[in-house]
Amino acid sequence: QLQASGGGLVQPGGSLRVSCAASGFRLDYYVIGWFRQAPGKEREGVSCISSGDDSTYYVDSVKGRFTVSRDNAKNTVYLQMSGLKPEDTAVYYCAALQSRIRAVAAVKTARCNGDEFDFWGQGTQVTVSS
Predict the structure, then answer these.
(1) Beta carbons within 10 angstroms of residue 61's beta carbon
(2) Residue 5 to residue 19: CA distance in whole angstroms
(3) Closest CA to 67 of 82, 50, 55
(4) What is the pLDDT of residues 80-92, one digit of tens each?
(5) Most buried residue among 6, 113, 121, 130 by CB atoms closer than 10 A?
(6) Cross-strand partners of 106
(7) Average pLDDT for residues 40-54, to the nearest whole number?
(8) Beta bridge partners of residue 59, listed in sequence order
(9) Distance CA 30, CA 115 (A)
(10) pLDDT for 94
(11) Residue 53: band (very low, low, confident or very high) from pLDDT cuts 50, 70, 90
(12) Residue 130 to residue 127: CA distance in whole angstroms
């Protein structure tokens, strides 16, 4: 089970950290992805982090503003968001994809395609507004 948390209301330019905690399995062996969906828009892959070498992917619109990281001891993955913009407003979901082969994990991380992910957490709402 995945539990996403940390969403909220923040002003433009502000920061927020959302968390994805796993229970029942170790995140070490999973590629973890953050996805978002705004009303009337398709789901978008925001960021992914690999299970092997912690390689990462970011969609162009968040590069330089968002940072994904994992704390295996806490079995949690974080998405630190800064310089938030109104267009970042969405429900943010985390998802897990099992991959113990480093090369495969790296490829799937680079694709960050939600259709390839096995487990999904419930979403957490992030609203950027003044």
Answers:
(1) 12
(2) 5
(3) 82
(4) 999 999 999 999 9
(5) 121
(6) none
(7) 92
(8) none
(9) 15
(10) 97
(11) confident
(12) 10
Could you tell me the two tokens for 72? 């295996």
CB 81 within 8 A of CB 115: no
How high is the pLDDT of residue 54? 81
Q: Is 16 exposed, middle or buried (0-12, 13-18, 19+ CB in 10 A)?
A: buried
Band of pLDDT at residue 28, cut at 50, 70 and 90: confident
CA dihedral 124, 79, 58, 44 (to 10 degrees): 0
**What tokens does 56 get?**
């990462």
Q: Given the structure tokens 């407003």, which residue do they identify?
A: 89
Rg (CA), the chain: 14
Q: Secondary structure of 35-94 in the HEC alphabet? A: EEECCCCCCEEEEEECCCCCCEEECHHHCCCEEEEEECCCCEEEEEECCCCHHHCEEEEE
